[in-house]
Design a protein that fits this description.
Elements lengths: L7 E2 L16 E9 L5 E9 L6 E6 L2 E7 L2 E5 L2 E8 L2 E8 L5 E6 L4 H11 L1 H31 L2 H6 L11 H20 L9 H7 L1
Antiparallel strand pairs: 1-5, 2-3, 2-9, 3-4, 4-5, 6-7, 7-8
């Protein structure tokens, strides 16, 4: 697998405790793998924000064992860990193995993701409502963006001659488009915080991010 070639050996340093102010610098996920013999291994994934080359650092039992550019595939206990990303950060962590091991992943409780997960566990109805608002926002922005794109493309001479012109029924000001863009990014971020993504629902997040 090509992504495994990107993995570099860690230097063995200890993972520092996640502090409240670290929510502005990096994300931290904890993972526990339990095999069929009942033995457990604890891993942690750390990813810094606002870096030129996004990467993820892997820790086992608190020690730095490997790192890789994102998206990444990292070797772990009896399998591999796949880490996928979007324009709003890590949006998926998957444990691939041929064995019947039990795998759990959760964000550090002091992080923004940890707070979102706390809301999901303690206030499930509110969490569901937030999730649906995010989906509706993303689909709405996708629809509006698509209509405006069709209008723009139809004004290209070759396109208008071959296909014809299309006049959008939706005319928005620059400030309205910015507002929609910000809302889409926030909605995409909410879905990323919960490690949920869908190729259609979240495609607009990438477009607005660019």
């Amino acid at each position: 697998m090509k992504k495994l070639k990107k993995v570099k050996e860690g230097d063995g340093h200890r993972l520092k405790p996640y502090r409240l102010w670290n929510m502005f610098t990096h994300s931290l996920f904890h993972m526990t793998i339990k095999n069929h013999d009942g033995e457990t291994t604890h891993y942690a994934l750390k990813s810094k924000y606002f870096t030129e080359e996004p990467r993820v650092d892997l820790y086992r039992e608190g020690r730095h064992i490997a790192y890789s550019k994102l998206p990444a595939v990292l070797p772990v206990e009896r399998g591999i860990m796949e880490v996928t990303t979007s324009s709003t950060g890590i949006n998926g962590i998957h444990y691939r193995t041929d064995h019947e091991d039990i795998f759990t992943v959760y964000p550090d409780r002091r992080s923004i993701r940890g707070f979102r997960w706390w809301v999901h566990q303690r206030l499930p109805r509110l969490s569901t409502w937030i999730g649906w608002v995010a989906i509706v926002t993303l689909l709405s922005s996708l629809s509006i963006g698509s209509i405006q794109l069709m209008d723009t493309l139809s004004n290209i001479p070759w396109v208008s001659e071959q296909i014809g012109t299309f006049n959008t029924p939706i005319s928005l000001s620059a400030s309205s488009n910015v507002t929609i863009g910000v809302a889409a990014v926030l909605a995409g971020t909410e879905r990323t915080l919960m490690l949920r993504n869908h190729w259609l629902v979240d495609i607009e997040t990438v477009n607005w991010g660019e």
